[in-house]
Write a structure and sequence with these properties.
Oligomer: single chain
Largest sheet: 5 strands, parallel
Length: about 170
């Protein structure tokens, strides 16, 4: 994994919902959060959504406004993440949304998501198990394709309890 990762809103909210936001301090990366992502999180908090403690990340300023073409395809946070990574030579982004991941890959960025960070944390011994975290995410309404969940859990040597697995989560 790289030394720097630019992180989008979704993974930050998911890590907070899973009770493992501390991973941003415990994993061997510098996590960079564009101001636009921070603004999305703060806006959500003002609307009553769960708070996200950003003390484990570095808030970065974008180099000018987010590109209008990118904004026509993605939300402001995803667009800012991709644009910051490209302009500043950061080769990896952390995005969960399918469309954002596809566009990031199209411009030759490496993509990791929440589940990838959980898997890395397990492999490094930062987390002893990821299934309980995934259960919390599912309880909070975070959605994953069942095949992806099975693959990640298999890589970690774990399974979800039958009740938590559900249909095509």
């Amino acid at each position: 994994m790289p030394d720097k990762i630019v992180v989008n809103t979704g993974p930050l909210i998911s890590l907070a919902a899973g009770g493992v936001l501390n991973l941003l301090r415990d994993l061997p990366h510098q996590f960079l959060v564009p101001r636009e992502v921070r603004d999305e999180i703060e806006s959500g908090q003002r609307c009553g959504r769960q708070g996200v403690d950003l003390s484990g990340v570095t808030i970065v300023e974008s180099d000018g406004p987010v590109d209008a073409v990118t904004l026509s395809l993605l939300d402001r946070g995803e667009a800012a993440v991709i644009q910051f990574a490209l302009k500043n030579g950061v080769g990896t982004v952390c995005i969960d949304e399918k469309k954002g991941r596809r566009i990031a890959r199209a411009v030759d960025l490496e993509v990791v998501g929440t589940l990838g960070l959980l898997l890395e944390a397990k492999k490094l011994g930062v987390l002893s198990a990821i299934a309980p975290v995934i259960e919390k995410l599912l309880e909070h309404g975070v959605w994953y394709q069942s095949g992806l969940l099975l693959s990640v859990l298999s890589s970690a040597g774990e399974t979800l309890p039958e009740a938590a697995a559900g249909e095509d989560r």
